[in-house]
Structure formats: C-alpha cells, structure tokens
Amino acid sequence: MDIFLRNIDPIAVKKFDEMAKKKSISRQELLKAVIEKVAYEKELSEREMRLELIISKNIFIMEKVADRVDRLENLLSDLMKE
C-alpha cells in the first residue's frame, strides 16, 4: 500500500534524510520502518509484558523446585547416615 504525504516541514524531511543516510538506507525505507514500528508498538509492548510475566512465573517455579530438590537431598543424606 502506498502513502503520499504533502506539506511536510522541510527541516523534518532533512532530518529524516540525515537519519537514513547514517543507516545507509533510503528515506522511504526509514519512513516505512518508523510507520510499521508505531503501528505495532502497542502489540509488541503487550507481548513483552506477557513474556516478562511468564519468565517471572518460571523463575518462581524453578526456585520452588530447587528448594524441593535440596530438601530431598538433605532427607536422603539423613536417611543414609542412619
């Protein structure tokens, strides 16, 4: 899909051109990337938050499992001493 923009501040266009040049891409490629990033930013942020929650839950469960393993090792050690 094409988007045509008019009456853009020339200074803003120049700044985009400078940014594109630093990245060795065209103005069009830079604008396309910026538009797509803005369009998907909320979804990506929500995904990141869900992922962080999943990671936190996994860490909590892993800590509980590690604690239980330690308890089992201690119990086995005590039983073997008897």
Characterize the largest beta sheet: strand count, sense, and whether it forms a barrel: none
Rg is 27 Å
Bin the strand percentage. under 5%
The tally of beta strands, per DSSP, is 0
User: What structural class do you assign from the helix and strand content?
Assistant: mainly alpha
Alpha carbon gap, first and last residue: 77 Å
Overall body shape: rod-shaped
The unreliable regions are none
In DSSP terms (H or I, runs of 4 or more residues), the helix count works out at: 2
Helix content: over 70%
Element order: H for helix, E for strand: HH
Mean pLDDT metric: 93
Short descriptors:
0% strand, mainly alpha, rod-shaped, 82 residues
Give a concise summary.
With 82 residues, this protein is an all-alpha fold.
Structure description:
The protein is an all-alpha fold and 82 residues long. The chain is 84% helix and 0% strand. The chain is built from two helices and no strands. Helix 1 (10-23) packs across helix 2 (27-81).
Q: What is this structure's SSE topology?
A:
Elements: H1 10-23, H2 27-81
Helix pairs in contact: 1-2
